[in-house]
Amino acid sequence: MTGSRPKTLHELRASPWGGAPLAGRSVRDEIRANLLRALAGGEELFPGIHGYQDTIIPELINALLARQDFILLGLRGQAKSRILRGLTRFLDEWLPIVAGSEVNDDPFAPISKYGRERLAAEGEATPIAWVGREDRYVEKLATPDVTIADLIGDLDPIRAARGGHVLSDELTMHFGLLPRANRGIFAINELPDLAGKIQVGLFNIMQEGDVQLKGYPVRLRLDVLLCFTANPEDYTARGKIITPLKDRIGAEISTHYPRDVELGMTITGQEAWTDRDGSGGIAPPVRIPAVVREVVERVAFEARGDKRVDRRSGVSQRLPISTLENVVSSAERRAIAHREPEAVPRLSDVYAALPSITGKLELEYEGELQGSAVIARELIRRAALRTLYDRLAHEEDERLDRIVAWFDQGSALKVSSDERSAAAAKAFAVVPGLLELVHELKLAAPRDPPAEVAACELVLEALAAQKRITRSEELGWGAARPRSGNR
Length: 487
Hints:
Elements: H1 9-13, H2 27-40, H3 56-65, E1 70-73, H4 80-85, E2 94-98, H5 113-122, E3 128-132, E4 137-141, H6 148-151, E5 153-155, H7 157-163, E6 173-175, H8 177-180, E7 184-189, H9 196-207, E8 210-213, E9 216-219, E10 224-230, H10 234-237, H11 243-248, E11 251-254, H12 261-271, H13 290-304, H14 318-338, H15 347-352, H16 354-358, H17 365-370, H18 372-389, H19 398-408, H20 421-428, H21 434-440, H22 449-465, E12 469-472, E13 476-479
Parallel strand pairs: 1-10, 1-11, 4-7, 7-10
Antiparallel strand pairs: 2-3, 5-6, 8-9, 12-13
Helix pairs in contact: 12-13, 12-14, 13-14, 13-18, 18-22, 20-22, 21-22
């Protein structure tokens, strides 16, 4: 509580913060001590981060225990920024500073002239302020227009005139982000986008602790953990990390996308906004069939392996997250229109979410010729095929042959994506063996029309992916080839 924390330097000396091991401890030692305590207690170190427990997190722990600066190197949408922001849990809950200090001066060893002069003037009565752990994390997105003044600081002529100081006086300095992160964590996202001369200023203050501002040397002994993120694509596309800076970064840790679909579904389920509350009772509750969740996730996996999609850019995990959100919105819209008791997405809702897919695909030349919408539709069909075949004992299933035979006889089926669930389920029941297959594979329970519709669409989309039947927006599902004698 605020009232229990010391308010003056005298009180601070007499408190636990005034003795070993807290007094004079560096931020790297602080992080190390709290991390060791969390490891010993078996705590979850990075809540909400999935799939890195056996790969990235051990490497990150090693770097932190070694008190090293580090860089997370990986494609977009791999939770790099979230990992950096999660480092604050290894900081102490509160940090004492000299009250009024812009650089979080340690009351026992201030680095700024302001802090030193205040201690000299007020001694043991020097007031103490407290900074919470979240305020000790400073993050900057690197852009080509970032200047030394933004990161390190600049001389302020107005401050000099008002205070009667000469420009070379440290009290005329306007501190940038890095000094303000003193005794904390400073993160730079997309490091290669930072101009080379600014990177020079960074590694200089990392190693030597001094920097010149407009010809005036200002020495700052900063205590800060530096961490960075970078996308490998940026090394050639927009910039690069200069060699002296890379040499000063203790660890380079490469991130990755989810290694399997189940893990991807866990991440998407955690991040996607699918629990639609706060609608005043107008919107019905949402129930998402497992097959729909899986198809959405597999779209991203299929895209990452498609040669028409630029692998250097990657396919962000944001693709299935935003797609699932739009899928739910499409189901909501249909349920409200038909006054259905719940919103249950189906495969046609995945097609309705195409804008969430096409905008996140960076295409190669061949893909550009075909168009992102065409490729996205193909990815959905392939995702449906994978989802179905994971549940079949053998790819050559006689139950599928029976369904295909019905279409080959000249039959066709068109079900509107906006059709109410009960009517759509009756329409799919016309196809011999379709509902039976759905129930046998446990894709949907009997007498559950919304889930049955989603499962039936899955089967037909899978057959369309194999080109055993055709599918079009105008005609629905039909035979893959004309009947004998029809030429």
